[in-house]
């Protein structure tokens, strides 16, 4: 291997290691995260952001913002958005009542590079909703999106 390739690979490895460490430290600072899912307590009234990694090691961020909330903690509307840097940003509104998803609305999916087709927002059950779409870049087509679920008084968001 020539010197330029070795230098490039060294810099690339250091960048990946730094990015992973940075994302991990941000995840610890966020409300509660696992490797690929954000957990937002419905008892809070503040916006929260999470920095996560998907199953392929690709970083992404989730933001959950209360739009309206009722006198009971688990009632309200929440704007959920997920961004995959340099690829796409998507989101929707989840309406919650008595720890159940009662409706989903306002789907959006914006390509940052490439294109997006077949955007479908669905309330799957009283505890789960999905926003699914096809993300197309170069000659690659990926079925992806966002999954929202409610469990034990928390709204959980993950990348499909």
Describe this structure in words.
Residues 45-157 form the DUF5626 domain. Keywords: Signal. This protein has one helix at residues 3-29, and strands at 37-41, 48-53, 59-69, 76-84, 88-97, 100-111, 115-125, 128-137, 140-151, 154-159. The protein is of the alpha+beta class and 160 residues long. The strands form two sheets. The chain has a five-stranded antiparallel sheet with strand order 1-10-9-8-7, with no helix packed on it. Strands 2-3-4-5-6 form a five-stranded antiparallel sheet. The termini are far apart.
What's this model, at a glance?
It is built from one helix and ten strands.
Topology:
Elements: H1 3-29, E1 37-41, E2 48-53, E3 59-69, E4 76-84, E5 88-97, E6 100-111, E7 115-125, E8 128-137, E9 140-151, E10 154-159
Antiparallel strand pairs: 1-10, 2-3, 3-4, 4-5, 5-6, 7-8, 8-9, 9-10
């Amino acid at each position: 291997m020539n010197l330029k390739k070795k230098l490039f690979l060294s810099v690339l490895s250091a960048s990946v290691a730094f990015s992973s460490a940075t994302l991990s430290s941000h995840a610890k600072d966020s409300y509660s995260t696992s490797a690929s899912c954000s957990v937002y307590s419905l008892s809070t009234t503040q916006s929260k952001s999470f920095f996560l990694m998907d199953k392929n090691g690709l970083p992404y961020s989730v933001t959950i913002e209360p739009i309206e909330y009722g006198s009971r903690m688990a009632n309200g509307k929440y704007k959920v958005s997920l961004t995959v840097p340099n690829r796409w940003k998507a989101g929707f509104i989840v309406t919650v009542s008595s720890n159940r998803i009662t409706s989903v609305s306002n789907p959006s999916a914006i390509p940052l590079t490439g294109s997006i087709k077949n955007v479908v927002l669905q309330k799957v059950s009283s505890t789960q909703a999905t926003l699914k779409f096809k993300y197309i870049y170069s000659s690659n087509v990926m079925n992806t999106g966002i999954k929202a679920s409610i469990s034990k008084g928390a709204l959980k968001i993950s990348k499909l």
